[in-house]
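Quick bug: Ribosomal protein S18 acetylase RimI-like enzyme output formatted oddly.
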Amino acid sequence: MNFSNIVQSTNEESDYVRNKLIEFNSQHVLNGRYEEVNLCLKNDKEEIIAGLNSAICWNWMEIDILWIRVDYREQGYGKKLLEEAEKISREKNCSFIKLNTFSFQAPDFYKKYGYKIIAVIENAPNDYKHYYLLKEAQSQNQCLTVSQSAVGGCIQSEYQLYSDQD
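Here's what came back:
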């Protein structure tokens, strides 16, 4: 068999590979779940002015995108979308919320609302930084410990949920 024929995959082929990984993961983590949680905000003309795309995976929510149209920024819409996502994550019994952002985007915005930086990659892209942030979603009695290590030039982080009662 010739394995040197690597080609760019189609969307259908990419979905197949993704579904195979989900199938594999499901064999190792019981009660797995994946649910998209996508929110948008429209103005009185029904134009989308802001949106948040996220997914609930197992016991966490991952926010992929939070976008606000330029002329609607600094008016509290990002906060409203973030608060709604956090409310949904609590309703769905998520332990934490994770997300990533660049230094030219909104790390200070997320820190303002309680997200903690757990990893930073320098020069990604160019002279910017790529931040990974996390916020616990359940009770105030639970905390997350984070350990980080550099492996092969990449940062790996490990999370452990514990109660402050421990």
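Actually, after a second look the formatting is fine. The beta strands are 34-42, 48-57, 60-68, 96-102, 116-122, 129-136, 142-151, 154-163. Closing.
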